Amino acid sequence: MGIFDTQKAGFSSGASWILPAALAATLLSTGAWAQALAPEMATPDVELPSIPSINQYANPKAPANNPLATEAELVLSAKLAENGENIGRGLVWRVFAPDADTDGKLPLLATAKGGTTSFNLAPGSYLVHVAFGRAGATKRITMTRAKRNETMILDAGGVKLNAVLSGGARIPQDQLRFSIYEDHEDASGERALIIPDVKPESVVRLNAGTYQIVSNYGTANAVIRADIRVEAGKITEANVEHRAAQLTMKLVREAGGEALADTAWSVLTTSGDIVRESVGAFASIVLAEGEYVIIAKNKDKIYQRDFKVVAGRNQDVELLATNGASAASTANQPASGDDPLD
Question: Contact, 125 vs 74, CB < 8 A?
């Protein structure tokens, strides 16, 4: 670059010189021109480091890089019942040290998911816990230098929940929810909640025993409680029956007329307890079988009537806005009618 820069400076200063054409041709043809521009430079001797082949890099499975790999193997499997088959998937395994740390918790040493699994453990005592859904079991295991196989018996089963209306009519599944409670009450008379918001037809894994289930149809007072028994190695199907119906209420100026907007609704029991309050042209609610008082308030006028809910009979209820007096007309619908809006 220095040679070319010098030449450019020479031209810009006005200096002129001409290389004979014959000499230029000779230099270019013989390579002397290139030698003049770039004098020979000796290549230095560089000692390159030895690069290991790819199989020489650290292998995470190699004993040298996995100290526990040289320890004895603990192979773990689990069954729902003593005479059942090994569970192939859905298990969560945890291995704890047997002594609590300064925080009062057992140190978690290893985990695994799936079915049958194994851990390499140094000689000593451990607590092994396996969970399958809400079912679980814990066992103390002492390891030596020998391989050990251990099968955990969960003593667990499953429960599948659903509900119907009186007469067997189907309830829309998005209007059903279940909760599972312990079967015994505590000192305050309450039952401990185990699993909330269980969807119908879903299988819940539980340890064998008795539980109380609570079924909610809609969000008002259609609630059923029942006790169920879960047996080890079996799926228990529980269907409860709701004695309830869905009401869709509207305030109209004439029978079959358009619903009046901005209407405040209250549904009370005959003893005066409020069951549900809402605002809108339509009020849809699922109510348990029984007698109620329906109150509609629009602007400064109040309309009300007594109403009886018959199990399994969904109804449209119209309140007539006539001189502030109470009036109503009903139209029966099949029990499997449209979903409630509440």
Answer: no
- Rounded Cα distance, 284 and 38, in Å: 95
Give the pLDDT band (50/70/90) at residue 66: low
CB 321 within 8 A of CB 298: yes
Which residue would you say has higher pLDDT here, 340 or 131? Answer: 131
Distance CA 264, CA 205 (A): 44
- C-alpha span between 58 and 51 (Å, rounded): 14
Q: Tell me which residue has tokens 């799926």.
A: 235
Q: Which two tokens stand for residue 303?
A: 């309309």
Structure tokens given for 29: 């043809």
**Model confidence at 332, in pLDDT bands (50, 70, 90)?**
very low
Which residue has better confidence, 341 or 154? 154
Residue count of the chain, please give it: 342
Question: The tokens 């602007």 sit on which residue?
Answer: 299
Q: Rounded to an integer, what distance in angstroms lies between the CA atom of residue 322 and that of residue 214?
A: 42
